Amino acid sequence: MFHVFQYQPLRLITQNSLSSMCLKLMLSRPVAFARIWKSWFSSHSLLGKKNIILMGPPGAGKTTVGRIVGQKLDCPVIDIDDDVLETTWNMSVSEKLQDVGYEEFLEEEGKALLKFSASGSVISLSGSNPMHAAGMQHMKKNGIVVYLDVPTRVVMSRLKSKQMDRIVGLSPGISLKDILQFRKQFYKRWFDIRVLCGGDIAAEVVAEKVLDAVKRYQDSELETFISTRSSRSERNTEEDSNKLYFSDIVTQGLALDGGLYVPERGLPKFTAEEWQGLIEATYTERAQVILERCIHPADIPASKLAEIIETAYGENFSCSKIAPVRHLAGNQFLLELFHGPTASFKDFALQLMPHLFAYCIPRSCNYLILVATSGDTGSAVLDGFSRLHDTDKHRIALVNFFPEDGVSPIQKSQMIGCQKENAWSVGVKSDFDFCQTAIKQIFTNSDFTGFLTVEYGTALAAANSINWARLLPQIVYHASAYLDLVHQGIISFGSPVDICIPTGNFGNMLAALYAKMMGIPIRKCICASNENNVLTNFIRTGVYDLRGRKLISTFSPAVDILKASNLERYLHLIANEDGQLVTQLFNQLENQDHFQLQKDLLGKLQQDLVAGWCSDEDCLAAIHSVYSTTGYILDTHTAVAKVVADRLQDRTCPIIISSTAHYSKFAPAILRALRIAEINQNPLSQLHLLSSYSALPPIHWGLLETLKKTGNGDHQVCAADMSALMSHVETLIQNHFM
Description:
This protein is α/β, with parallel strands linked by helices. Helices cover about 50% and strands about 15% of the residues. Its cofactor is pyridoxal 5'-phosphate.
């Protein structure tokens, strides 16, 4: 039978091996204790009595890789085909398949697995083993399942060269490609770790990747998070019990010192071969591979992450490609990020993040999520959290603060219409910067947050782009856009592209910079601002200056922002994680409304970023010009990016312009750009008028349906006063959780 490693009983641990500090940690933070104990055990034995189980399609190299891994670990190596099946049956696998047929073969193969037992070994499964559920459940009890993920075209090439004839399921009318695609669902169901295997990668290299992946799987201690404002001395003296992991920072949002969380060891890097292995993958497949490397399985297991991603992107997007890339003109391409349920790029994070949040939070506490929005976040976060399971809705509620007079009429109607039993919108008589600053002050008010926890058993969390779980999904679509251009034959992998993004809070831009760090060949990131061009001036001069600046209301309200929160993460990155410097800069911004970068840091910044801005007049002119020449309607934010891209690109490589919202959301401005003389003030009438143009892309029908249901819905309005906002928060908690 299997030898399954189990932790010692509590009484034995306390008597023999743990200090009182460890006992306190085990009782107060059992998850953190388990990780530390598991890390200690892993450092003493990579395998222990567990097996490393290699899984993948025929031709993935499981047998060869298994032998190399076994040699490196000096442990037994077992090939299921040769050492188990053929020994049990006294005949070759191909003979057995021919003798009993496809369905009976799978059953016989599963029975053999159920009788099999091993420990401390490297085991290579057959390509069809994962199709027998009971057999795989039996194997997983004492093993770490490693999926050798080889691109289908590579597998087919290998099998053809080897002339393999024992592929289970292969028959007249069923192609090898169909079989390989069909089996992927089973591989994805069972694996603990994925190892990407490119085209001509050597078996020795794959074996090293397997060992590295197993080490990562067993040692989650390496993947901790720090605040952008923590000093190196603080981090060096921090006790293990105070370390923070993905599941911790998803629920906390903002760091206690006012900074933002970032991974202590940075983001994972993909090799060129690994990226090329994703060229033929679907969007959801790319998302899972990328996010698996960014989220440790101790926080969210790969199988659960796959389930969450499929829930987020499976049926909620109107385009099967999720984030398609469309040629606009010349060397310009549009990354369409508006096919989600609320018609903006925010859907990519906010269809996913609520499920990550619900999985990570403890079941013993209620959570109220605070959100500030300049427009699109509001409806996206309301829609995302409304799709949680009913049991999660009872313990997770949300309040969305937005500038009452600072969003478009359709955006406002959307936010009102998307309110649910656990999610509400509150209009604030101020601008977005006030809303965002107010939320930060609430989070750092320990008296107030402590009162909510003690009095109501409720903790606060953030779902704005300051939350790390909001940023990760955005990295995916920037990487995916590049891979799509390669897949379409526009460029070969390794050729550079520029990216232009309408930028306000810097989250979308930061995600593109992270994609670049992870290995996507992005040359320049172009930051496009409207008349609230503080970021543009900063990127050009190194001076972030809010002195005398007042927010200007424009036709692109989602970037009507003066304080770009996520800029802090980027400055922390280029300052080599100097938390003291970051603290100094942002304290100066808070107290004196300005700061200036050192010359060396400005030089680093300008290697990554260039910037420009666009007036409302130029924005509308661009919408009219593009529609007149192509029949395509840009939304106002995409038009800002288009104008800036035209001015700053050098046309030596393709440029991907992020189309961050559907034009339907900004109908009055679009109709004005199209030079319609009389515009009905009713949002629904405006959308019907736009639909008569038969333009590309078509009208967003999900948005249309939401507006039909909205009518004259109610929402609360609050004065621009901290005490009033805190009172609203407490009242909402009382009404929902009490």
